[in-house]
Write a structure and sequence with these properties.
By secondary structure, the protein is α/β, with parallel strands linked by helices. Helices cover 49% and strands 18% of the residues. Helix 1 (33-47) links the parallel strand 3 and strand 4. Helix 3 (79-98) runs parallel beside helix 4 (115-122) and helix 4 packs across helix 5. It binds coenzyme A (COA).
Amino acid sequence: MQEKRYTYFLLAIWKNIAYITVNRPDKRNALNTLVLKELAEILADLKTNDQVRGVILTGAGDKAFVAGADIKEFQDFSSDEAWLLSKFGQEEVMDELYTYPKPVVAAINGFALGGGLELAMACHIRVAVENAQMGLPEVSLGIIPGYGGTQRLPQLVGRGKALEMIMTGEMIDAREAQQWGLVNYTVPADELMATCERLLEKMFGRSQTAITAAIRTVNIGLMEPEKGYEEERDAFAAAFDSPDFKEGVSAFLAKRKPNF
Ligand code: COA
């Protein structure tokens, strides 16, 4: 186990998984600028850490995953400052997670609101505890989601439910979130981490190169739909040159497990 110290994070690496915990429970793990900066730094470090093949992102305490952007911090922001805050959060954290080359699972251990839900939606997969509550309450503050929520929520739940959630600002619970495809699994709190670990461990038995290509191709298809099929064809073709392809096919034909 490796441990590093941050103001607002706990980071542990165990076997092939990096556990990133937003550690600001007294403020329900709200995202201020330093939280975002530290998370950007952690993600950059883990990207080049060969021991790490997957990431679990969660919040400290049993109340919140992340209760949103830090309302206190932005209360006096001008429009220009708000624009920069949104750009920084989107580019350095949310888009980074969305396009991360290693699988990232959000372990939603409580409230995921506003920027907290946007953070979870930027991850590749979401697992929530049964009593988690999720929503984009920005309109009750007179603003709209600024970390990609207006784009990523419709991708997951469809335009109708996304607009309902965004326009009412109401929370939904984990079961409803699962019905709409916002979370992949809803589990009792004491099974949260094991469920996330099991998902990642399944992926660790597959080709990491292929998983990275799949993440990229799915994202391009969603962001630039006209390019999706072409990108898939190119990535499919490129995979045939990879050592993982040789190993995967040889293992199948020899009736053994591949060693990626
Ligand atoms: N930004 C800044 N501070 C926040 C915060 C946020 N998004 N969410 C919670 N906090 C702070 C509270 O101000 C409070 O601080 P204090 O102890 O100094 O007064 C502390 O965290 C605990 O919050 P509290 O409301 O007492 O906790 P709770 O468990 O009763 O309720 C929530 C939890 C998440 C339902 C509630 O805090 C909430 O609605 N937060 C705001 C959610 C939101 O609108 N997010 C979108 C932001 S764009």
